[in-house]
Amino acid sequence: TARIIDGKAFAAGLRARVGEGAAGFARAAGRKPGLAVVLVGEDPASSVYVRSKGKATLAAGMESFEHRLPADTDSATLLALVDRLNADDAVDGILVQLPLPAHIDERAVIARIDPAKDVDGFHPVNAGRLATGLDALVPCTPLGCLMLLKDAHPHLAGLEAVVIGRSNIVGKPMGQLLLRESCTVTMTHSRTRDIFAHVRQADILVAAVGIPGFVQKEWIKPGATVIDVGINRTDAGLVGDVAADAAEVAGAITPVPGGVGPMTIAVLLRNTLVAAGRRAGVAVDESAL
Ligand code: NAD
């Protein structure tokens, strides 16, 4: 049976390394790295995320600036706040919690964030920089997946990698990261025919679908490394996009919960430290993170 990839432990190590980096930054820059998180409305899940991001930011020795706006906030008010945060020197990272209420144009808000402070990596400039091989701020969840993968597989070059899902948040940047590691990448999605025939070839499988137990045990190539990004709330609790018995076939697999989930906030802190270093001209050893 598969080795279980302990994302919780890896994330704890990453948070500790970021904490040391943040302390070094503070000594050199005379201030702590700062992360601003903006929440519009009272969506309960988003509210929980924002609270845990704030706590983790403080625990890593960074400043946390929380902005909670009412659900009926108009676009102009939100854009004006983004402008203020862009101009605020104490703010190194800006995260606008998604989804935004339907009356606000999410793309316009993301595009307004200074790409140098875009710690979610959703700005088109960062997506383009990633795709063209320039230094970029990379979306937290797929970068966390890649860190777990590189830990399991120091040599990714040449491996067959299959990604299920093509969202801007997970699937697409995941494909770019695997391509950057010289994997042979197949992107699959809701319109793919015979998805199992593709998955069957995968040495590396990343599932980011949002359907509980979507990937079946029989699809998986024996010994494959499986990264399950799915977080699905069911009557049976939190489950991933990969069937639980897939662990009987895979070589290594991330559990849900305790796999990819804990990595996202840890990478957010990493991105904030990296953004702070670049903005302030303070050396941050990114390879040691
Ligand atoms: P999304 O809904 O934006 O994208 C889902 C993708 O799955 C789409 O690109 C779609 O083409 C594909 N898809 C849907 N049905 C399919 C089918 N039948 N066959 C093949 N592909 C299909 O979702 P997302 O934001 O990319 O998130 C995916 C999952 O990852 C969700 O469960 C989400 O909760 C989870 N997630 C977890 C984290 C984390 O661990 N921190 C972060 C983000 C998302």
From TrEMBL:
Species whose genome carries this gene: Sphingomonas corticis
Known role: Catalyzes the oxidation of 5,10-methylenetetrahydrofolate to 5,10-methenyltetrahydrofolate and then the hydrolysis of 5,10-methenyltetrahydrofolate to 10-formyltetrahydrofolate.
Tagged with keyword Glycoprotein: no
Sequence similarity: Belongs to the tetrahydrofolate dehydrogenase/cyclohydrolase family.
Biological or metabolic pathway of the protein: One-carbon metabolism; tetrahydrofolate interconversion
Limits of the Tetrahydrofolate dehydrogenase/cyclohydrolase NAD(P)-binding domain: 139-278
Protein name: Bifunctional protein FolD
Alphabetic keyword roster: Amino-acid biosynthesis, Histidine biosynthesis, Hydrolase, Methionine biosynthesis, Multifunctional enzyme, NADP, One-carbon metabolism, Oxidoreductase, Purine biosynthesis
MF GO annotations: methenyltetrahydrofolate cyclohydrolase activity; methylenetetrahydrofolate dehydrogenase (NADP+) activity
Known catalytic reactions: (6R)-5,10-methenyltetrahydrofolate + H2O = (6R)-10-formyltetrahydrofolate + H(+); (6R)-5,10-methylene-5,6,7,8-tetrahydrofolate + NADP(+) = (6R)-5,10-methenyltetrahydrofolate + NADPH
Positions that bind NADP(+): 165-167, 231
Domain spans labelled Tetrahydrofolate dehydrogenase/cyclohydrolase catalytic: 5-120
Quaternary context: Homodimer.
